[in-house]
């Protein structure tokens, strides 16, 4: 089993839709969690850190479920500019950060 | 501040050629990382450097060597390039190991 798994998509949604991505992980000792956004032919950039209590930043909400070992990202009122690949990542302690392969999102007009 | 810079942006090599990918950061971070990104595989750690003067293997170190020249610079060397090393290479650095990583713009490498 991969340490981090994401549905590769693509997710094709209309503008204004709500879309959710999940990311499951296998190492229960994982300590910190992140969502990154990666535009085509660009580097990944941090979208949000994911906290145990959940956190929200505008249209974006991230959740952590330690019992079921997954993190989620919810995007409300999707915009064309949200089209990108979304990578989840987690740190298992020390110098090891594991990245998922990413979920591609296309938002259509 | 430039953050994390990488050179070159693009490179085409023939099998067996060598090259060095350069990375520099002006964020004053201790640790630096080299990843490769392939379709469907996500980012895989090649080598990392916890601090100046130290380097350690990651998940896919075979065929690569690294040098942590000073606190700012971390280079990745391919001694004898192979087609399997065709990839996009990213350098990254976090404020602390468990925190978010800041990535350079990447180097696209094609090995023929």
Report on this model:
- The complex is a heterodimer of chains A (109) and B (112).
- Chain A has 109 residues and is mainly beta.
- Chain A contains no helices and 11 strands.
- Chain A is globular.
- The model of chain A has no long low-confidence stretch (mean pLDDT 94).
- Chain B is an all-beta fold and 112 residues long.
- In chain B, strands 2, 4, 5, 6, 9, 10 and 11 form a 7-stranded mixed sheet that branches. A 4-stranded antiparallel sheet of chain B has the order 1-3-8-7, with no helix packed on it.
- Chain B has strands spanning 4-7, 10-13, 19-25, 32-38, 42-49, 56-57, 64-68, 74-78, 87-93, 102-103, 107-111.
- The interface between A and B is medium-sized, with 23 and 23 residues.
What attributes characterize this protein structure?
heterodimer, A: 109 residues, mainly beta, five-stranded antiparallel beta sheet, 11 strands, B: 112 residues, seven-stranded mixed beta sheet, four-stranded antiparallel beta sheet, globular
Question: Gist?
Answer:
Chain A has about 110 residues and is mainly β.
């Amino acid at each position: 089993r991969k340490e981090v798994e994401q549905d590769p998509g693509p997710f094709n949604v209309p503008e204004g839709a709500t879309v959710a991505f999940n990311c499951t992980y296998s190492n229960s000792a994982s300590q910190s969690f992140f969502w990154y956004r990666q535009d085509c032919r660009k580097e990944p950039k941090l979208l949000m850190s994911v906290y145990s209590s959940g956190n929200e930043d505008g249209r974006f909400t991230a959740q952590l479920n330690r019992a079921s070992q997954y993190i989620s990202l919810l995007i409300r009122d999707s915009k064309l500019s949200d089209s990108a690949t979304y990578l989840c990542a987690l740190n298992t302690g020390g110098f090891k950060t594991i990245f998922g392969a990413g979920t591609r999102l296309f938002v259509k007009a | 501040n430039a953050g994390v810079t990488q050179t070159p942006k693009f490179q085409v090599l023939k099998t067996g050629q060598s090259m060095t990918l350069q990375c520099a950061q002006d964020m004053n971070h201790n640790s630096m990382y080299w990843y490769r990104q392939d379709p469907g595989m996500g980012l895989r750690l090649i080598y990392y450097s916890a601090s100046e003067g130290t380097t350690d293997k990651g998940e896919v170190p075979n065929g690569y060597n690294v040098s942590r020249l000073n606190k700012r610079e971390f280079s990745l060397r391919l001694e004898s390039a192979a087609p399997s090393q065709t990839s996009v290479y990213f350098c990254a650095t976090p404020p602390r190991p468990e925190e978010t990583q800041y990535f350079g713009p990447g180097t696209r490498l094609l090995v023929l």
